[in-house]
Amino acid sequence: MSDYLNSQHHYITVDTQRLVDALKTSTLAKDLPGMADVDSSLYLFCQEIKKEATVALSGECADEVFGGYPWFHRPEDLNANTFPWSQSTDDRASLLAPHLSAEVQLEDYVANRYQETLDEVPRLAGEDPAEARRREMFYLNMIWFMQTLLDRKDRMSMATGLEVRVPSVTIALLSMSGMYLVYEKL
Predict the structure, then answer these.
(1) Are 78 and 71 in contact (CB under 8 A)?
(2) What is the pTM of this model?
(3) Which domains can be identified in the chain, with CATH numbers?
(4) For the chain, does the N or the C end have fewer beta carbons within 10 angstroms?
């Protein structure tokens, strides 16, 4: 690909200790609990890019916009009746202190947010049930998962002074708003 595009590629290797050392910084950049080493690795990656550039394009959220995750295609994920990226809510709930678990009722909370979100999904008259379910999956991803990734990308990159643009999100927002993006190949 590098030869075809005549582009320069750089490899960045980060050892475990460097990831661990960046955990506090990435948590402070997130300003709330996040994805631990996934956040610190993104922070370190952005820090490296910032050495050479101030603005970067990212493919972040392309999987949400174009259906790139397995859960868009695997029947067991499409029919799981919950957020596909969070199918083990009971395991997560077990990590809470008993008094918090009783107060939060995580499984009920997730089930309620899931159903509320499904109730918001735009419907098309006469749509095939399988396609209607896929539409729900896209909506769930754009409303929940994509927002998490955009926030994460923004916080980790800006903490290093790197400005990241995510063109796939622009396409999705134009599409959701009923506008269309037309381009001409140069």
Answers:
(1) yes
(2) 0.77
(3) 2-176 (3.40.50.620)
(4) C
